[in-house]
Amino acid sequence: MDVSSSSQQTPVESGGTPLEKAVDVQEKQVEKIIESATEQSKQTNAQKTGIGNSLNLIG
To answer: Which of 2, 35, 40, 46 has the greatest number of C-beta atoms within 10 Å?
Structure first.
């Protein structure tokens, strides 16, 4: 899981407080983490069942 701080500076839109922007950034980071965890879970399940990236051909 790669959690790194972004160095991008985005201007604060009119009507948006810095707190709202920080919450928005955190929500996007959490979504990325959840997507990553979901993908890892799918890969793990595929390996357990012998379906997916590594097929169990031995038997």
So the answer is: 46
Strand (E) or helix (H) holding 31: helix 18-49
Biggest alpha carbon–alpha carbon distance for the chain: 62
Distance CA 38, CA 55 (A): 20
Closest CA to 28 of 1, 6, 7: 6
Rounded Cα distance between 21 and 5, Å, is 15
In 3D space, the residue among 40, 44, 20 whose CA is nearest the CA of residue 32 turns out to be 40
Provide the residue-wise pLDDT of the chain in tens; the chain has 59 residues: 555 555 555 554 555 899 999 999 999 999 999 999 999 988 888 777 766 555 556 65
Instruction: Please give the model's pTM, rounded to 2 decimal places.
Output: 0.50
